[in-house]
Specification:
The complex is a heterodimer of chains A (about 375) and B (about 100). Chain A is an alpha/beta fold and about 375 residues long. In chain A, about 40% of the residues lie in helices and about 20% in strands. Chain A has two domains: about 20-130, Response regulator (Rossmann fold, 3-Layer(aba) Sandwich), CATH 3.40.50; about 140-370. Chain B contains no helices and nine strands. Classes of the chains: A alpha/beta (about 375), B mainly beta (about 100).
């Protein structure tokens, strides 16, 4: 099986062809947004970080922004800086440059204010967009795909229908030589002992248990009760009683293959097959981390229904809840609710999900893309100073 | 199909439609053994019903794993949820020590 993608200079294959307008700091968001609005094919990445950050938190923000710049769904990058920020625009340009793609930086304090920087940035983005518009899609094997898996707004149907169906699709993609990322460390809590047995070796299994323990220790150190946040009020209304129950349903997304690697947030996988990334259970930073890690496409299961997308990668929405399929039809791509109605098996729906992944890779627009959902959030892990 | 048992030996089944109190439903448990369950409470769609009696302090098993600990006596047919089962993870409210 093949998909049609865009070959990048570093050998990665994109399924979208964006000019990314990347603010290095919150202060450059407005300029970045105005440039992206003016140029078809360009997308801005507004965010609240980039200054007054230290240590691992600074590094994680930088890794996330660089990861978006080097994601193969992006063909060219224009970094927009203010000039005095902690995360200097030059650093981002230098870190993205080895990908071989066209990357430039402009600085508001050097250009002389908002209108001047918007004008200059728009000129550059027009040239980039013009260049990228000449690229043609070519066929590539599924082994070039990195699939991010996510579940959000879960209810009992997530663990009974949507996640098991996605697990079937994950297994099929791994079998075809591709890569699948499971994330949401909080939602491994209570299921880590089951998953750890699937580590490709003892060290990988231990790393998986370690990231869950670290997440739980952070909660215990604060002296707070995870309940109320995990499961969320909507999860509880949907029948999920505890984080353990939610987690045991969550891990079905990852299918049945061995776990080959445990990644830090926004880290590129070095192995194919199934990998786990350390992210919060919070949907938007979790999806952000996986895309920064190179995922070109996301399959997102939901029970209660959620509309969110991502700035540079298509998000395919799957629900296992037949009522949600009816109620939020315009936001959803695949109905796994048929499994609980006895009209199809998880294998049937799993194959349908993989077929949809290929269609969307080839250019089909997901509901989240059509509706303009471009949610983005960096996982902050330190104080703002 | 009104009730789903995920794993052989699970103490609960999940309703996939709303089920009124006092309804008798046939389900397949442990693969091939058919059993009958009469609901003692209303079971909303997506919520769990007990297949066995479970005393306070015992782990509640779904997916073949413990999903929490029983805090109120559960009778076969009862609605099982946050009122009678509680999570043992991320409980920083309990003197900062992980339990279970």
């Amino acid at each position: 099986m093949e998909f049609m993608g865009y070959l990048r200079p570093d050998g990665q294959v994109g399924i979208r062809n964006y000019v990314l307008i990347l603010p290095s700091v919150v202060c450059a968001n407005r300029v970045a947004e105005q440039i992206a609005e003016a140029v078809p094919g360009a997308v801005a990445l507004p965010h609240p970080a980039g200054c007054a950050q230290v240590g691992a938190d600074f590094e994680q923000t930088k890794r996330t922004l660089v990861g978006f710049g080097t994601n193969p769904n992006v063909g060219a990058v224009l970094v927009v800086g203010l000039g005095c920020e902690g995360l200097q625009p030059d650093e981002l340009v230098a870190a993205i440059k080895p990908s071989g793609k066209w990357v430039e930086g402009i600085v508001i304090q050097e250009e002389g204010g908002t209108p001047a920087t918007v004008r200059r940035g728009t000129q550059i983005a027009i040239e980039m967009s013009s260049e990228l518009s000449q690229m043609k899609r070519e066929p590539f094997p599924l082994s070039e795909l990195i699939l991010a898996t996510e579940c959000g707004g879960s209810d009992s149907t997530s663990g009974l229908a949507a996640n098991p169906a996605l697990g079937v699709a994950s297994d099929l993609l791994v079998e075809a030589g591709g890569t699948v990322i499971l994330s949401e460390t909080t939602e491994l809590m209570g299921a880590e002992h089951v998953l750890a047995k699937r580590g490709c070796d003892a060290a990988t299994g231990k790393e998986l248990v370690d990231i869950v323990n670290k997440m739980e220790e952070d909660i215990l150190r604060m002296g707070v009760d995870l309940r109320g946040s995990q499961p969320s009020p909507g999860n509880i209304a949907g029948g999920l009683t505890t984080i353990e129950e939610k987690s045991l349903g969550c891990i079905y997304k990852a299918g049945t293959t061995p776990i080959n690697e445990v990644l830090a947030f926004a880290q590129r996988p070095s192995k194919k097959g199934l990998v786990v990334m350390d992210t919060p259970g919070y949907d938007i930073p979790s999806v952000t981390g996986m895309i920064a890690g190179g995922a070109q496409i996301v399959v997102f299961t939901t029970g209660r229904g959620t509309p969110t997308g991502a700035p540079i990668a298509p998000v395919i929405k799957v629900t296992g809840n037949p009522e949600t399929w009816e109620k939020m039809r315009e936001n959803l791509d695949i109905n796994a609710g048929v499994i609980l109605q006895g009209k199809a098996t998880k294998e049937d729906v799993g194959k349908e999900i993989l077929a949809e992944v290929i269609k969307v890779a080839n250019g089909k627009q997901t509901r989240a893309e059509i509706l303009g959902h471009r949610e983005f959030a960096i996982w902050r892990v330190g104080p703002t100073v | 199909m009104r009730l789903v048992v995920v794993h052989p030996g699970d103490m609960v089944a999940t309703a996939v439609v709303d089920i009124a109190a006092g309804t008798t439903v046939k389900i397949m448990n442990d693969g091939d053994e058919e059993m009958e369950i009469t609901t003692l409470d209303e079971i909303p769609s997506g919520h769990k019903v007990a297949l066995v009696d479970v005393p306070v302090g015992k782990p509640l098993i779904k997916y073949g794993e413990a999903i929490g600990v029983v805090t109120q006596p559960i009778k076969k047919g009862n609605h099982v949820h946050v009122h009678n089962v509680e999570s043992q993870r991320g409980r920083g409210d309990r003197s900062g020590q992980r339990v279970g």
